[in-house]
Amino acid sequence: MCYYITVAFPKTMANSILTSLPKGLHSLPVTSPAISKLLPRDYDSLAIITAMCSCDLYSPSKPGEKDREKEALQRKYKKKGWSENKIQRALDDHEKNMKTRLAGFRDDFLYWLSALSANSTGNLYIFVHFYGGDVETEELEIRRDKVTAEGLRSFLQGFPEDVLLEITN
Asked: What's the CATH class of domain 2-60+103-168?
């Protein structure tokens, strides 16, 4: 049970895709019929992974998560009898020092995808799914959407799951 990020591209780009992957990122061929049937015939697709999956590269957005955490800390500090000023300083320090896993894509993947889409000779496709079974055989309900390479940034902090996003030039 893991996230996988699938990137599809014209077969002529395969070499440049593989050689441009950032350090620590790897690829696996994707042959899922559910995805393949939605792509042009002359396209290949790869899952971009860190070890065995893409969980380190993508985090779903969880509405209100940051606010709930802040409220919990605030209650904890009030129980300790801290003053409002001390609580505010502690919350500010916590936010600065906290290692937050942002919703959306990890920075190195995001930079790579942005550069790839800006320099691509053809359209690219990206798909994110949380697989509960076999990556190649799991049935998928895939929606479709389109965005320009310049408009890609609007999707990156809240990228939708189960949407095959076509990135056009």
From this structure: alpha beta
